[in-house]
């Protein structure tokens, strides 16, 4: 059955390849990116290559939470039923560390933007018969410093990225409890996949990008995972495919999750 699927950050990397595969399978796909020209080019490329036309573009720079809210308002109006949201947009290296509001760009793009977008369009996601939200976490997960989260202190790229991914995972588990009718899964798609992010950050890769794409397609579409809400899938474990594993201990610490969400609400 054809599903309506939004993939954020699908102008490059595993998001783009995932959007391609979803189109090949005949789903209605929304490609999202920060740059309108790039979004239009990817939408055209998918349409031409797959000879399938139900592909649409969405634009918002996720460093800007006002732009995220505007995009959410547009989605609320234009896409009444969303079956699957893949929160994939992410950043590791960035020239500017802070956004115009003084928040660390990794925290904004990797955690606050998907938090704002998802919460704003929850009612549309709930219209689906079997809704799913897939949140792109990472093997890199580090305790979230409130000072880093609110932009008061700056940490290394490695540490801030890992903090943003643990924040996303903590919220993901909380969302699964809050919304028992939505399957919410956090996933490490595999470390050092062959994408712009890994190559820019480390100058090397360990695995083809397709390893991450395959698991995103599985988690999003397969019936195997419909009862795995509130879990973390680690694609570094196992071969060729990973399995559900424990995330960082903080992701199970109710007091820390409560504190994270309280601070998050003050920021948005
Ligand atoms: N690659 C890995 O080894 C690996 C490992 C673990 C987790 N992950 C996670 O997997 C996800 C995808 O990563 P990837 O490796 O495919 O990265 P990528 O090739 O760098 O692609 C990232 C995507 O996010 C978009 N993006 C970046 N900043 C944005 C912003 N400010 N606003 C809107 N969109 C923005 C990019 O847009 P542009 O096309 O405009 O750049 C691109 O479409 C990320 O969340 C990443 O943290 C990756």
UniProtKB/TrEMBL annotation:
Protein keywords: Oxidoreductase
InterPro entries linked to this entry: NAD(P)-bd_dom_sf, Sc_DH/Rdtase_CS, SDR_fam
Protein name listed in UniProt: Short chain dehydrogenase
Domain of life of the organism encoding this protein: Bacteria
PANTHER family hit by this protein: NAD(P)-BINDING ROSSMANN-FOLD SUPERFAMILY PROTEIN, RETINOL DEHYDROGENASE
Organism: Olleya namhaensis
Record-linked Pfam families: adh_short
UniProt xrefs under SUPFAM superfamilies: NAD(P)-binding Rossmann-fold domains
GO MF assignments: oxidoreductase activity
Family: Belongs to the short-chain dehydrogenases/reductases (SDR) family.
